Amino acid sequence: MYASPASATTALTTITPLAADELEDIVLLGVPLWGWQIAVAAAGVLALVLLARTIWNPTPGSLRAWALGNIAVNAGIAVTGATVRVTSSGLGCSEWPKCTPDSFVPIDTGHAALNAAIEFGNRTLTFVVLAVAVITLVAVLRMSPRRRDLVRLAAIIPFGVLGQGVVGGITVWTDLHPASVATHFLLSMVMVFVTVALYVRCQEPEGRPQVSVGPMLHTVSIGLVVIGFLLLIAGTVVTGTGPHGGDALAPRWNLDLAAVTRVHSVLGWLTLAGSLLATVVAFRGGAHRIARVSSVALLVIVLLQGVLGYTQYALELPEGLVVLHVLGSALTWVAISRLYFATTRLVPPGGDVTAEAARAGERSSAAVRSE
Questions:
Q1: How far apart are CA 41 and CA 29, in angstroms?
Q2: Which pLDDT belongs to residue 33?
C-alpha cells in the first residue's frame, strides 16, 4: 500500500523513452502518467532550489517549519494509503520493489489504469516523505550550535521511512494481508510521534526533560498515549475485518465486524473521557497556555472523530468517509502526542521548569500575534 523509497527512486530514474510511450495508456486529466511524474520531479527540484537556504543555513523558525513538514507528510501518507485501500488499488502494482515482474513502472499490470496510477503514485510519494526527512536531518546537523538531542530525533525519521518501505514490500508480497497493512499504518503513527517530538523540542532549549504541569495532567497525558495507540490498533483490526481490503482478493480476518467495532468504540469513548479530563485538569490546575490549548484541541478533534466514526458505520463504510476517518485518526494521534509533550519541558541545568514553561507560552502567544 505505501511504498519503498528505493522503488520510487528507481522508478523516477529508469523511465526510458520506450517506457514513456508504453505508459501513455495511463492518462489522468488528459496528461499521461509519465508527464505527471516529470512535473512532480521538476516541482521538487524547484522547491529545493528555493528552500536551499533554509536547509544549509537554518534558523529556529525554518527548522520548526521542516519539523512540521515531517508531521504533515508522515500523517499524509497514511491518508493516501487509505485512498489506495478503498479504491481497491493495493495490487495496482503487484510486485515490490518492481511494479510488475518485468517493470519498475506500471506497464501491463492486469489492473485498471487508474488503480495502477493510484498505487504507483502512492509509492512515489514515499520518496517525498524520505526527502523531507533527509532535508530535516541535514538542517539539524547544520544548526549552530548543534544539538545532539535533535540530531538523534531527526536521524530516526529517515530510517523509519525506509522501514515503512520494507513493510510496504511485505504488504505487497503477502497480497495485502491485514496484519502487514496494520503494521504499515502503525509504523506511520510511530513516526508521527517522533516527528511531533522533534517539532516540540526544537522550540525548547537544550536540557533535560522535566514535568512542567501538575502530576495529574502529566499522568493523564501518558494514559492518553497508551489508550490512543490501543485505539489505533483496534482501528486496524476493524479495517482488517471490514470490506475495504485494498483488493477484491485480499485476505481478511474472520472476525465479527460488529464486535471488533464495539471494542474500537469503547476505546474511542475512553479517549474522549481522557481528553475531557485533561482539559478540566489543565484549566483548573493552572497549567501553562500550551498545555491548555493542546487539551482543548484534542477534545475537539476526538469529538469530531467520534461523530465521523458513527456516521461512517451507520452509512455502511462509504469510501470517502473511510478516508476522512483515517485522516481523523492521524490528527487525533498528533493531538495526543502534542498534549503529552506539552506536559514536559526541556530545562537547562540549573533552570526553573515553571519559568521555562511560562516563557514558552509567551513566545507562542507572540508568534501567533505576529502571524
A1: 18
A2: 67
CA angle, residues 47, 52, 55, in degrees to nearest 5: 115
pLDDT in tens, 10-32: 333 333 333 334 444 566 677 77
Q: Report the alpha-carbon distance of residue 282 to residue 134 in Å, rounded.
A: 36
Residues of the chain with pLDDT under 70: 1-28, 33-34, 109, 350-371
Grid coordinates representing 296 are 482543548
Closest CA to 190 of 236, 247, 127, 257: 236
Distance CA 234, CA 370 (A): 41
Contacts of 143 (CB under 8 A, 6+ apart): 58, 63, 150
Q: Is 62 helix (H, G, I), strand (E, B) or coil?
A: helix
Pick the closest to residue 279 from 342, 362, 197, 326 (CA basis).
Answer: 342
> Whole-prediction pTM value?
0.84
